[in-house]
Fold this sequence. Notes:
The mean pLDDT is 77. Helices cover 67% and strands 0% of the residues. The protein is mostly helical and 173 residues long. It has a domain at 16-123. The chain is elongated, with a radius of gyration of 27 Å.
Amino acid sequence: METIGQDLRISLLPLFIIALPLLEIAGFVIVGRQVGALATVGLVLASSIAGALLLRHQGFGVMIRVRAEMDAGHDPSRQLAHGAMIVLAAILLIIPGFISDIFGILLFLPPVRDLAWRLLKGRIVLATDFSTGGFRARPRDKIIDLDDDDYSRDDDYRRGPDHNSPWRRLKDE
């Protein structure tokens, strides 16, 4: 039953992508009828400028919070998700249209972002382990230390592989 729901969601995405511009045009007509054409264009320009300014202001704040979480050795995934949602919100505000502006403004609100994070965090896989109290360097199994006579930029590669090369020994081990 769950796969039917997933297939339905996937098949509705193209319909939504086609319907959104039509809904935005309808929004322009409705708003233009209420406030006039010039005011409608002014609102669209104002929302684009507001999106760019909010992205700059809130984006830097999220970057600072992500850095603070990482410096403290905590999982920054929530703050990174908030940053991604702020970028999406700014893009929605910059795109001309009132429906996209409504969703963009909603995503700029921290409680809405927290709700979205609670709904999405189960679907996101964290690739880094922060449980050790910070970042860990990946352990290196084998280190190759070359001396000056082990490497040269001559045309020696034309003679074939050097069987005494440390690179060859590493591969054979």
